[in-house]
């Protein structure tokens, strides 16, 4: 087993780190406060190949491997979590789904536009009444005699919904078949029948814009179906396997930022005449933070490695996402505790890391859902 990264992997890590340090981290507080969408920074990520890291060059991407994606996501998330949310949806939920299941024409049209950073993509599975229980969706796509589909219904919590040009949508085409009656579509938000709701105010990742979207008699052409009719749920689950590696990486990035700030603080801050880092209770926290961070990183790299081998990586991705998100939340919590009053203040980014950390345990499958996936894989029971 070789723990060294390749030249190529180190190069993209370096590009991402430089953008994160020079452009993203310095503006993170502004975007968190204002809740504005960081369009210019997102364009910079696109221009540097970070919106289609695993997309082959022929479709406008950087043509790199899943480990490169993990390394770049960690750097961007360490700069600001909200930027990495936008980046992860473009890379792993939008581009990955169309690359795996799309036609040549779909890849050229939609993947290129997102991978090059010309447009923003989104992924719409969740509905007001169906989050974890995704097959309980009500959004309906009705097939017409001419092969087109008419779509009606709502999707909620759609990341980049307020700004996306194209959306991968999952809708029920045959409600009698439950999971096997779901079909995936590629939506052009410029077409009639597509509406955006108000941007949701949120606890964290505030610069990542999220909204409800609605379809009223939206017409999807036959060549806007992604993959085969009735295969949508499997497409969604496969795409989410890859997405969960992205969220695990995001969690590592947030956790690392909180950890590094804490390391600096425990060396400087004094109490009872000595640096607080000399107290054994603080040292135990530092040691546990570091262990959790490294464990999460290794598990996430393992999931990315299995993906890169072309093997099924559902279980590895769920293990990585669960471990990394819970590590991130724990580390951010300890970081606030160690910074104490300053951890609670908006003068430092620690409270933002704490607010941002929470989402990693919720989206792309809650921690309970990751445990369910892992236990089903381990036991073979349902
Ligand atoms: N890959 C391929 N196929 C899969 C699969 C996978 N990982 N997981 C399940 N399937 C297949 C099953 O084999 C089954 O196929 P058959 O019909 O041929 O038997 C079919 O899909 C149905 O599977 P289940 O019976 O296991 O489905 P379920 O209803 O029990 O649900 C679940 C399983 C794991 C709970 C799933 O619903 C789930 O992951 N829920 C969480 C939803 C989620 O993660 N949403 C995220 C939205 S996007 C987002 O959040 C983005 C963001 O924030 C930025
Ligand atoms: P519910 O499914 O109602 O769950 C409520 C509670 O019950 C949770 O604690 C859950 O873990 C638990 N629970 C449910 N089922 C089980 C079970 N079988 N066993 C044990 N416990 C269970 N969705 C998209 O499609 N696209 C996006 O871009 C997107 N972006 C998002 C961005 C943000 C900021 C947020 C908050 C959400 C986003 N989501 C998106 C939706 C997200 O994926 C869901 O919120 C998530 O999957 C949980 O669904 P829910 O909120 O409906 O919770």
TrEMBL record:
SUPFAM superfamilies recorded: Acyl-CoA dehydrogenase C-terminal domain-like, Acyl-CoA dehydrogenase NM domain-like
Alphabetized InterPro entries for the sequence: Acyl-CoA_DH_CS, Acyl-CoA_Oxase/DH_mid-dom, Acyl-CoA_Oxase/DH_mid-dom_sf, AcylCo_DH-like_C, AcylCo_DH/oxidase_C, AcylCoA_DH/ox_N, AcylCoA_DH/ox_N_sf, AcylCoA_DH/oxidase_NM_dom_sf
Transmembrane segments: none
Domain Acyl-CoA dehydrogenase/oxidase C-terminal, chain residue ranges per copy: 230-377
Keyword flag Flavoprotein: yes
Top-level taxon: Bacteria
Cofactor requirements of the protein: FAD
Entry keywords, A to Z: FAD, Flavoprotein, Oxidoreductase
Domain (Acyl-CoA oxidase/dehydrogenase middle): residue spans on this chain: 122-217
Matching Gene3D superfamilies: Acyl-CoA dehydrogenase/oxidase, N-terminal domain (1.10.540.10), Butyryl-CoA Dehydrogenase, subunit A, domain 2 (2.40.110.10), Butyryl-CoA Dehydrogenase, subunit A, domain 3 (1.20.140.10)
Domain Acyl-CoA dehydrogenase/oxidase N-terminal: 6-117
Keyword Plastid attributed: no
Similarity comment: family membership: Belongs to the acyl-CoA dehydrogenase family.
Cited PANTHER family: ACYL-COA DEHYDROGENASE, ISOVALERYL-COA DEHYDROGENASE, MITOCHONDRIAL-RELATED
Descriptive protein name: Acyl-CoA dehydrogenase
Organism: Noviluteimonas caseinilytica
């Amino acid at each position: 087993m070789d723990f060294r990264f390749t030249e190529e992997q180190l190069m993209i890590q370096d590009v991402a780190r430089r953008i994160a340090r020079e452009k993203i981290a310095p503006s993170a507080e502004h975007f968190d406060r204002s809740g504005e969408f960081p369009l210019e920074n997102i364009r910079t990520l696109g221009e540097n190949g970070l919106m289609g890291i695993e997309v082959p060059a022929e479709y406008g991407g950087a043509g790199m491997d899943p480990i490169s994606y993990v390394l770049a996501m960690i750097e961007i998330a360490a700069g600001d979590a909200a930027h990495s949310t936008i980046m992860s949806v473009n890379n792993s939920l939008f581009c990955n789904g169309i690359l795996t299941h799309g036609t040549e024409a779909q890849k050229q049209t939609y993947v290129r536009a997102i991978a090059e950073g010309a447009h923003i993509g989104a992924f719409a599975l969740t509905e007001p009444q169906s989050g974890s229980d995704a097959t309980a969706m009500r959004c309906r796509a009705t097939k017409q005699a001419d092969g087109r589909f008419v779509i009606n219904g709502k999707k909620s919590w759609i990341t980049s919904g307020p700004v996306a040009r194209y959306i991968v949508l999952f809708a029920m085409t045959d409600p009698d078949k439950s999971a096997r009656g779901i079909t995936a579509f590629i939506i052009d938000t410029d077409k009639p029948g597509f509406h955006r709701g108000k941007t949701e105010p949120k606890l964290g990742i505030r610069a990542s814009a999220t909204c409800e979207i609605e379809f009223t008699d939206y017409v999807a052409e036959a060549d806007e179906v992604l993959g085969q009719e009735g295969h949508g749920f499997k497409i969604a689950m496969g795409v989410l396997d890859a997405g969960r590696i992205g969220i695990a990486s995001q969690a590592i990035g947030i956790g690392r930022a909180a950890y590094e700030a804490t390391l600096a603080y425990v060396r400087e801050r004094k109490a009872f005449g000595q640096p607080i880092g000399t107290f054994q209770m603080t040292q135990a926290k530092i040691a546990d933070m570091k262990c959790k961070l490294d464990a999460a990183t290794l598990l996430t790299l393992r999931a990315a490695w299995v993906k890169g081998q072309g093997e099924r990586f559902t279980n590895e991705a769920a293990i990585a996402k669960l471990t990394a998100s819970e590590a991130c939340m724990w580390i951010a919590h300890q970081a606030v505790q160690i910074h104490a009053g300053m951890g609670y203040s908006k003068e430092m980014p620690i409270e933002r890391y704490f607010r941002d950390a929470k989402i990693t345990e919720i989206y792309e499958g809650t921690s309970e859902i990751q445990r369910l996936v892992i236990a089903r894989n381990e036991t073979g029971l349902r």
